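From the shared-data thread, chain only:
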Amino acid sequence: MGAILLFFRSIVFIVLTLGCTLVALIGGIPFGHRWALGTQRFWSVVMLWVFGVKVVLHGKKPQVGLMMSNHQSYLDIWLIPKYAITVFVAKAEVKKMPLVGWGASSVNTVYVDRNDKESRQKTKKAISDRIRKGRSVIIFPEGTTGDGNGLLPLKPGMFFNAAEEGFPIVPCAILYENPDLAWVGDDPIGAHFARNFSKLSTTAHIVFGEPMTGSDGEELMERYRLWMLNALEELKEKRV
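Structure, as tokens:
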């Protein structure tokens, strides 16, 4: 049963991802990026359903801002767009990836080129532009995935950018009931995918905080860190 379910989900993932990417690219020509972002939300919601991920929202849906979340799995990119019109920040290399890069570009992803000395200014401008248009911009300030038992060291750059530009930071905490869904270390993605999605279902918990503003990047980062650690502890208590 597990092998059949995994095969079905893999086929649906490929077909629907390709289909939604084409719809976003073609529809985005006459209707703009909002059409593509709506397609992204549809793709996210359907993927969660196909892969048996039940999402429990604690509290209210988020306000618009620079959304910062802890990062545990590739599933994270399905959870957040379910509740907000969102744009992601990704490495410039993503843009060159077949299928993934096409889809990312269609939804107005902000690309960061670490080899470009002007990249920071370009990123700040791009984020500001998207937030003014009513779209939340998502980043994972840990920079990589963790196991959900706390936080990895935070990358400070965007906290200082938020302080300089006046972006409201909207914190987001995610916790999976199945800790094996965290994709960390040298675990091959194929093996991780097969191990977890041959199972019928799982549950994810998500909570959004009130926007944080301030003129001190260091202080904003510390407030975010404390909020996140507290939110993760509370989510652990709510797991069944």
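Residues 2-238 form one domain.
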